[in-house]
Design brief:
Blueprint (H helix, E strand, L loop, with lengths): L1 E5 L1 H4 L11 H16 L5 E5 L2 H10 L11 H28 L4 E3 L6 E4 L2 E5 L2 H8 L3 E5 L1 E5 L3 E5 L1 H11 L4 E6 L20 E2 L19 H14 L4 E5 L5 H6 L6 E4 L4
Parallel strand pairs: 1-2, 1-9, 2-6, 3-6, 4-7, 9-11, 10-12
Antiparallel strand pairs: 4-5, 7-8, 11-12
Helix pairs in contact: 3-4, 6-7
The structure holds adenosine-5'-triphosphate and Isopentenyl phosphate.
Amino acid sequence: MIILKIGGSILTNKDSTESEVDYASLKRIASEIKDALDESDKELIIVHGAGSFGHPPAKKYKIGEVFAEEEFPQKRIGFCEVQNAVKKLNMLICESFIDEGLPVIAIPASSFMTATNKRITEGNLDYFKKYLNKGFIPVVYGDVVLDTQLEICVISGDQIIQYLAVNLNADKVILGTDVDGVYNKNPKTHDDAIFFDRFSSLKDLDTLEGTTNVDVTGGMVGKIKELLYLADLGIESKIINAEIENNIFKALNDEEVKGTVISRGN
Ligand code: ATP
Ligand code: IP8
């Protein structure tokens, strides 16, 4: 079984507060996934990020931060606003996938997962197994969930990947984003950034820089941390550039693609 993450940076413009989908990228990625699945009968779960739909409202309402009891009504409506925004993005993504002939079924984290201090502690995956068994492609995404300590919090698609990969024994974890992989510093702001084929420790980063001011889940650093947890449990993952045509197709088909493997080994 393969878990494929499609980053919010490719599907939306995370530097903008406008909720707009990049339909050209979405359609291309949908068709690459379809072509790859036509060549094999692998089970697939798709995870996507919240992009410019989810991060701005999550930041506005400071979801995940400790708050006083009297602030709860305002936080609760913020929770609903974020949940609705990411659901909208998911609906547009699923629409494009279905148009391409991909049998996707949305399973929102807010409807079945619970966290404790921002870490997923509960989430029954039986429905994932049932849908996979019937040939569906479950789609899950960065979302807001109830939290036993903080009342509510945000969980990233990257944390969801980690939970699914461990609990469903994924064979392969691929993350498509808008850069070739991990560098020692942000390649978008540093021309001299050095690329890593393999990455095994946060110590190798020169700067712990996120992505944009709007990312509430830690940007690239948050992603790497989740993938290092996964590596600790013996599951390697690979970050690739999904903006490059055919990269997703090739990665799904076990063909060589430039990218960074996150592992604890050498
Ligand atoms: P999301 O997590 O919302 O789904 P995503 O998976 O596409 O989005 P981001 O969290 O936006 O990924 O991370 C990708 C961005 O991280 C790149 O656009 C890049 O500018 C930035 N970045 C910061 N530091 C680094 C680094 N050391 N190496 C690579 N990219 C970095
Ligand atoms: O885009 C963030 O998920 P991510 C989820 O995968 C929200 O980091 C609601 C902002």
